[in-house]
UniProtKB/TrEMBL annotation:
Keywords: Cell inner membrane, Cell membrane, Membrane, Protein transport, Signal, Transmembrane, Transmembrane helix, Transport. PANTHER family: PROTEIN TONB, PROTEIN TONB-RELATED. The keyword Transmembrane helix applies. This is TonB family protein. SUPFAM superfamilies: HCP-like, TolA/TonB C-terminal domain. It is a single-pass membrane protein. It comes from Pseudoduganella lurida. Residues 34-130 form the TonB C-terminal domain.
Amino acid sequence: MASPTTLRLAAASALLAATAHCAAQDGAQVQEKQGQAKPVPGSCGKPEWPKEALRFEQEGEVTLGFLVGEQGTVRESKVVTSSGFPLLDSSARTALGNCRFTPATEGGKAVAAWTQMKFAWTLTKAAPTALERTYATGGTDIKEMVAGMADRGEAPAIVELTKAAVRGDAAAQSWMGARYAAGKDVPRDALAAATWYGRAAAGGDRRAAASLARLQEAEPSLVPATPAAAAQ
């Protein structure tokens, strides 16, 4: 498989150095007709890192599927795999809409075709805070205490749970799923909830697995978009 063509984009904040890049996806992830040349990335503007996402140190990767028209512009896009953060997913779609491509060709003529691109949002790592060290070394009681602080809207606790969820902590991922499922201090987002519940369930969190099952039963369209479902 050829290496993905990578377009490097940047975003910055006065407090946090941050980078984002997008990469065109190769291979079986993109369905192409036999004899059809796929779209080739051309120019893209810089994605805007949402201020609220920076405030809570959200990062992750989102894969977008999109239709490139005969003129090389993006006609339609959708989230294939969510970053878990709707703000980052939405900003990636906005940035993608400003990209220009060399269109796919078939029989020597430009044709509309679907392809995929991944946006990776990455923050420069800072020294761990006292709360981060406490959470990382604490037991269930400590994690529940931090979750309670976050439920009360305490920003440092929300930041810590966000970072812990990105690191792969199942308890933090389950909390993040519940946050988006209920729309607590954020707009309700079933896809984000399913994404985080799926990650927590994959890490062995049974309550998250049960919550994911209930969510998928209520909204079956989410099933193919979650990590848990993709692994089945």
